[in-house]
Amino acid sequence: MRWPLIILALLAVVLQYPLWLGKGGWLRVWEVDSQLQAQRAANHQLEQRNAALAAEVDDLKSGNEAVEERARYELGLTRPGEIYVHVPQKPGTKQGADEKASSGAAVE
User: Fold this and answer.
1) Which residues contact residue 21 at a Cβ distance below 8 angstroms, ignoring those fewer than 6 apart?
2) For 85, which of 51, 57, 68, 71 is 20 to 30 Å away at the CA?
3) Confidence class of residue 36 from pLDDT cuts 50, 70 and 90?
């Protein structure tokens, strides 16, 4: 009576091995699922970046305001009769942090 139970137990173990550790087993499924989630997150970030770039392209194509803004901030161009003044910031500080400190806002 003992031998048939041992044989059945070994058979169950042999049949379970491919399910858990085989080529298409659960461990591989979990690994591929985690890779899929990471790729979906990366794709979502890239879709957001592409949407922002598409909006910027549409803005540049549709009007002169975006072109003028780029010319002002990136190239330092001015209109006739205007004076360009550049105020440098201290290295290592951000503009938002300076504004909070000067306005007396409490930082938590």
Assistant:
1) 27
2) 57
3) very high
